[in-house]
Amino acid sequence: MVETERVRRRALVVLSVVFVLIVLATTFNHASARVAFMGDSITQGWTFPRANLGIYGQTTEQMLERFPGQVARPSNGVQFREVVIAGGTNDTLLHLDPQVTLNNLARMVDLARAAGVEPILAEIPPILRNGGAYEGAVVALNAGIVELAQRKGVRIVDYFDALEGHESAFTDGVHLRHRGYFRMEWALLRTGAPILF
To answer: What is the rounded CA–CA span in Å between residue 162 and residue 182?
Structure first.
């Protein structure tokens, strides 16, 4: 009789733990709907954001053009709490002036703040195409993004270090597999930004 009670208690504990894990997995599977993710195809292919504003092939200039209507004063009436701004990969692939990229990112930060939305800047991931030909440009742009974040006093998420040296996380040297996105999610959570609830 005592052994039966012990087995029942263990089963109850195991079921409770499984229930908690399911709840946590469901909760942490997506960011809050009040957190916008502005970006390009890397963002577009990511299942973590509920408010996914990534568009394939877009430069920071194109992101800036749609930023007011999608983040600062969204037409759907949602008041975002934070916006993760991840742009610059296509600018780099197109050999655009990095100062223009940084100016566009700075303008998005200013627009977000003016609308009462906390901006979070992101370093761009490594670009593994053409045998490392983009490495210097990516490192230089990321240094500028870090400096911009410090100057503006905003959080920054380091997608570069999270993915550097993990070639298997990429499908084509730019876009990511699930394991790459997991690394991005972990890097984002480490910023301490309240992106889940």
So the answer is: 10
